[in-house]
Amino acid sequence: MRPLFTTVKAAAVAAALFLAPALGAGEARAQGHDVINLPDTKFTFDGPFGTFDRASAQRGFQIYKEVCSSCHSMRQLSYRHLTGIGLNAAQIAALASQFQVQDGPNDNGEMFERPARAADHFRRPFANDAAARAANNGALPPDLSVIVKAREGGADYIHALLTGYEEPPPGVTVAEGMNYNKYFPGHQIAMAAPLNTDGQVEFADGTNGTIDQMATDVTTFLSWAAEPELEQRRAMGVRMVIFLSILGGLAYAVKRKLWADLH
Q1: Which residues of 157-187 are buried (b: 16+ CB within 10 A; e: fewer)?
Q2: What are the residue boundaries of the Cytochrome c domain, all occurrences included (predicted)?
C-alpha cells in the first residue's frame, strides 16, 4: 500500500503547487511604511494554463544581450539552454561564437581565451564582483538568472521597475548618483533607466520597440530563464488534477458498491 500512498501523496502535492495562487498583479507591496501598487501587466504565461511567447522571449534575449549584459550576468544559463525559447543548434552555435570565454590551463599551464561553445555558461561582463563594483560606483549589479523569482511581485515587479523611471515629485530630493523610480523600494535606485528610448533595440521581426514592449519582452525572457520548466510543471499539474479526479470518482463508486447492501 505504501507505493500507492506515496504516489497519491505526490500527486496531491503537485496539484496543490499547480493550483496555489501567486502574488496577484496589481496587489500592494509593502516596503516598511511605503505601499507600492504594481500595474496589472498581462503576460502570456500568467495563470495555470499560460505559456511563454517564444517570439517575445527571443526579443527579450536580444534586449538582454544588447543592453543588460554589459552589467548583469546570468551565471546559471548556458547558451544551449536557449533551445527553450525556440533557437536551433546552428543559431546557438553562431551566437555563442561571438563571445570569448576563458579556458585552460593549456599544456604550458597558461589560461587562454577561445570562442564560446553552446555548452558554455553565458559570458560574465566582469571578471569578479570587485571588478563589477569598481565599474558601477560601488554598486553590484545583481545576477539576472532567477531575478524574477527573487523579487516579490515577480514579473509584474520587473516590468514595473523597467517602466517606472520618471522625474521625482516636487519636494523629493534624489541623492547624487541615484535615479528616481516610482516602483523601487525607497524610490531611489543606482541603476539608470536601461530602457530609455523607443526603438532603442531594433527587432528583426519588425516589432515596434516601444519602452513598454521592450520591458514586456525582456521580462518574458527573464521569467523563462528563472523557471524554464514552468510549462512542463503546469502540464504535469493538469495531469495530476485529472488523475486525482478520476481516482476520487473511482473511490466513491467503489465505496457506494461496497456499502450498498448495508442501507
Answers
A1: bbbbbbbbbeeeeeeeeeeeebbbbebbeeb
A2: 55-188
Strand-pair partners of 61: none
Residue reference for cell 496589472: 40
DSSP at 47: S
How far apart, in whole angstroms, are the C-alpha atoms of residue 225 and residue 32? 30
The per-residue pLDDT for range 166-191, each reduced to its tens digit, is: 999 999 999 998 999 999 999 999 99
pLDDT in tens, 189-244: 999 999 999 999 999 899 999 999 999 999 999 999 999 999 998 889 889 999 99
Beta pairing, strands 34-37 & 100-103: unpaired
| Count of beta carbons in the 10 Å neighbourhood of residue 114 | 12
Tally DSSP H helices, then E strands, for the chain. 8, 6
The predicted model scores a pTM of: 0.81
What is the number of domains present in the chain? Answer: 1
Q: Is 85 within 8 Å of 52 (Cβ atoms)? A: yes
Q: Which domain does 161 fall in, by range?
A: 40-77+122-232
Within a domain: 126: yes
Q: How far is CA 159 from CA 85, 162, 167, 230, in A?
A: 19, 5, 18, 19
Helix 211-226 × helix 154-163 angle, to 10°: 150
The tens digit of pLDDT for each residue in 8-62 reads: 444 444 444 343 334 444 444 554 446 788 998 999 999 888 999 999 999 999 9
